[in-house]
Design brief:
34% of the residues lie in helices and 19% in strands. With 216 residues, the chain is of the alpha/beta class. It has one domain: Rossmann fold (3-Layer(aba) Sandwich). Helix 1 crosses helix 2 and helix 2 runs parallel beside helix 3.
């Protein structure tokens, strides 16, 4: 069952997420982060007031655009201020976007596969119901097999993503879904999950939460 947590406003959601990350980063945890406008506000907040980082912490992104690292379309590039401020760049598992896309997917899988259990994972959800790098029902149904996939994205770029098979390793997943424009897609996720990629991929996860600034 999907749990939903409604916050009084966006700032309350951001503050609570920052506190959760600070607490998690202080332990020997494996953490999956998401790109997106709201997550980057959170990560930049962490950069302004660095917290303690456990030396065995591992961080990685759920998906990456196959863009050069210096590009502002590269998710890891946008994460860099936080990684530098927390002095944990060596603990971040990066998608090597300089490789051919199939090789990049294999390389990324080889480095996240040894993480037997992921303590915490964040994802977003688009207005079209996509999450991470799965945009179609076929991609969202990859619940067995490889732990990463490479896709042609609707924005014309290519991407690398963990698969729903990998998400089974994540103990707790939080979907950060902010703004009135997301109300309809949250309702679809809650009531007709089988009709959107995020619902197909996640609705049977045993510990899935939606954190939102909307009232439900």
């Amino acid at each position: 069952m999907i749990k939903i947590r409604s916050f009084e406003n966006t700032e309350s959601l951001i503050s609570e997420t920052v506190a959760l990350l600070e607490n998690t980063f202080s332990s020997a945890a494996n953490v999956m982060l998401s790109g997106g406008s709201t997550p980057y506000v959170i990560y930049n907040r962490l950069a302004t007031a660095p917290c303690a980082i456990h030396p065995d912490l591992k961080i990685f992104l759920s998906d990456e655009r196959m863009q050069p690292f210096a590009s502002d379309k590269n998710n890891a590039n946008n994460l860099e201020p936080m990684l530098k401020a927390l002095d944990c760049e060596q603990q971040f598992i990066r998608v090597n976007t300089s490789l051919p896309i199939q090789d990049a997917a294999v390389d990324f899988e080889s480095r996240i596969e040894p993480l037997n259990s992921i303590n915490l994972g964040f994802l977003g959800m688009g207005n079209d119901g996509h999450t991470a790098g799965f945009f179609t029902p076929e991609q969202a149904n990859t619940k067995t097999g490889p732990l990463t996939l490479h896709t042609d994205r609707p924005d014309g770029m290519q991407g690398i993503s963990v698969t729903p098979a990998f998400l089974k390793k994540v103990r707790r997943i939080i979907l950060l879904v902010v703004g009135e424009s997301k109300r309809e897609i949250i309702n679809i996720l809650l009531n007709e999950p089988q009709t959107i990629a995020a619902g197909i991929a996640l609705s049977d996860h045993p510990n899935l939460e939606v954190w939102t600034d909307l009232s439900f």
